[in-house]
Write a structure and sequence with these properties.
Homodimer. This is Histidinol-phosphate aminotransferase. It is an enzyme of class 2 (transferase). It catalyses: L-histidinol phosphate + 2-oxoglutarate = 3-(imidazol-4-yl)-2-oxopropyl phosphate + L-glutamate. Helix content is 39%, strand content 15%. It is an alpha/beta fold. It folds into 2 domains: 130 residues, Aspartate Aminotransferase, domain 1; 211 residues, Aspartate Aminotransferase, domain 2 (3-Layer(aba) Sandwich), CATH 3.40.640.10. The strands form 3 sheets. It has a 7-stranded mixed beta sheet with strand order 2-8-7-6-5-3-4, sandwiched between helices. Strands 9-10-13-12 form a 4-stranded antiparallel beta sheet, with helices on one face. The termini are far apart. Bound molecules: pyridoxal-5'-phosphate. The site of pyridoxal-5'-phosphate has 13 residues, from helix 4.
Length: 362
């Protein structure tokens, strides 16, 4: 047998939310809704769809611009930065793995929180780094405990704000106080995949600029959530040019496909679509809070497009399976927690109806 690298032997491949077609096939259901992967329930902007169709009509036989020059220029103008402050990646996921590939050695330690995005663990483990998991406080990152865990081997700290899956937020002051404490030779990867959904006045603003004051910070952004482009895989990092250039060395030559680049350029300006998605999320959040309160279900207030709650009177895996059989896909987590993505009005109502049925039948 040919042996793979030792670091990957115990890695369990990432388990995404179950696809709708899978569940339809397994249970013979015609109608299934998926509220399991924090996707955009309003689909994709019409402006973006038109730009994609126009582009496809011209042919997709030519390799993409590997540097994603037009997208970087568009982002530079929009965010008042320089093109060399950006690295465009195949979704935010690739940003995470490229950072790990460029910076982590097997002797390094990384710090991350419990109950956060699992790709931080996997990207670090693949490089052989040691993982230090810090417990949460009230289902949020405990930044003091993270600082206390820093030692001479610490190379990188992963921060998700607002956090997936708990939906909790670290305020701007908490983040800057934390960054004031972290030594400059430790990379901080600040992932704000969900920040566009936050409605708290204390939410960090313009965190893509953090590197200007804190050169050891890289901010991760994605077009998969509020922009509705999860299927095309576009994300990016902002940071100081020297760090971006090092990460660029490990990037594949055409990592971001041409349609992803076209879609992202057009998605950035469609303010009407972004507002619709934001408003739908706020309405859906209010509605789901009410449902949980009526059912006496303990839930965590969210600054994202998903809500974390405790499975009522059964374990989270059982609740997941029972709801799935009735055509509603959600996501179970350890510790008897469940996460539901906020959907359209109809999807939220269907989720509430099926949740009530499952509780009654139990
Ligand atoms: C916290 C967080 N970061 C990054 C990502 C990666 O998103 P994508 O690769 O689709 O850009 C996700 C996806 O769910 C996420 O939840």
């Amino acid at each position: 047998m040919i042996k793979p690298r030792e670091e990957i032997v115990n890695i369990v491949p990432y388990i995404p939310g179950r696809p709708i077609e899978d569940v339809q096939r397994e249970y013979g259901l015609e109608h299934v809704i998926k509220l399991a992967s924090n996707e955009n329930p309003l689909g994709t902007s019409e402006v973006v769809k038109k730009a994609l169709i126009d582009y496809i009509n011209g042919g997709i036989n030519i390799y993409p611009d590997g540097n994603a020059t037009n997208l970087k220029e568009k982002l530079s103008k929009k965010l008042n930065l320089q093109p060399n402050n950006f690295l465009i990646t195949n979704g935010g996921d690739e940003s995470l793995s490229l950072v790990a590939e460029a910076y982590l050695n097997p002797t390094d330690e990384v710090i991350l929180s419990e109950l956060t995005f699992p790709r931080y663990t996997d990207s670090s483990t693949i490089m052989g780094a040691k993982i230090n998991v810090v417990p949460m406080k009230n289902l949020n990152y405990d930044l003091n405990a993270i600082c206390e865990n820093i030692n001479s081997n610490t190379k990188l700290i992963w921060i998700c704000n607002p956090n997936n899956p708990t939906g909790t937020l670290l305020t701007e002051k908490e983040i800057t106080d934390f960054l004031d404490t972290v030594p400059e030779d430790i990379l901080v990867i600040y992932d704000e995949a969900y920040i566009e959904f936050a409605d708290s006045e204390d939410a960090p603003k313009n965190a893509y600029l953090l590197f200007q004051k804190y050169p050891n910070v890289l901010t991760v952004k994605t077009f998969s959530k509020i922009y509705g482009l999860a299927g095309l895989r576009v994300g990016y990092l902002t940071g100081q040019p020297e760090i971006i250039e090092n990460i660029n060395k490990v990037r594949g030559p055409f990592n971001c496909n041409v349609l992803g680049q076209i879609a992202a350029i057009n998605a950035l300006d469609d303010e009407d679509f972004l507002k619709k998605v934001y408003d739908n999320n706020i309405e859906g959040k209010k509605y789901l809070y009410k449902v949980f309160e009526e059912l006496n279900i303990s839930y965590t207030k969210s600054q994202t497009n998903h809500i974390f709650f405790e499975a009522p009177s059964m374990n989270s895996k059982t609740l997941f399976e029972k709801m799935q059989k009735k055509g509603v896909i959600i996501r179970p987590f350890p510790g008897n927690y469940v996460r539901v993505s906020i959907g359209t009005k109809d999807e939220n109502e269907e989720f509430a109806k099926v949740l009530k049925e499952v509780i009654q039948e139990n």
